[in-house]
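> call design_seq(struct)
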């Protein structure tokens, strides 16, 4: 049985994942509004991925006999300076999530809750991937700079992205 402290912390993380989905949808809307539909598509898929993360925790809480609590979702950032700016904000968001998964893992270790430690390992690995992929996108976008043709090509690449729960 999970302690209230750990159950609440997991619940909070579940809500954070759903907030991340909300925030990525705001980035999608910004890109779509500026007719960058390939980047918008990328963020819609990213939001899908975050909902999957939220559902993973929801299912874990259920498996451990805890009723998940859904909290109200704060308004995400909706104004950005550029497409690059959305990616920089996305990276910051992912770094915050990484920190909170670390804190959650510390708590699970503190309570010697081995099943939860094992469950969280997937999220730790996932965060390494997430940060690395956003860092790469930022590097590419910086390199592209004001070159409209290259930006178009890069956008076409990102447009191909589809989220599947087993891969990415
Ligand atoms: Fe996530
Ligand atoms: Fe993420």
């Amino acid at each position: 049985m999970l302690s209230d402290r750990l159950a609440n912390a997991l619940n909070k993380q579940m809500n954070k994942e759903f907030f991340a989905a909300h925030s990525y949808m705001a980035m999608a809307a910004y890109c779509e509004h500026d007719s960058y539909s390939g980047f918008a598509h990328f963020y819609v898929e990213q939001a899908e991925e975050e909902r999957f993360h939220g559902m993973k925790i929801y299912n874990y809480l259920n498996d451990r006999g805890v009723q998940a609590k859904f909290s109200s979702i704060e308004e995400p950032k909706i104004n950005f300076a550029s497409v690059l700016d959305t990616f920089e904000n996305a990276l910051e968001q992912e770094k915050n999530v990484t920190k909170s998964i670390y804190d959650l893992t510390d708590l699970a270790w503190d309570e010697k809750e081995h099943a939860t430690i094992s469950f969280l390992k997937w999220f730790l690995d996932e965060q390494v991937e997430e940060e690395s992929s956003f860092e790469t996108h930022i590097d590419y976008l910086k390199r592209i700079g004001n070159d409209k043709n290259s930006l178009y090509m890069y956008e076409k690449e990102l447009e191909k992205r589809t989220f599947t729960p087993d891969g990415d």
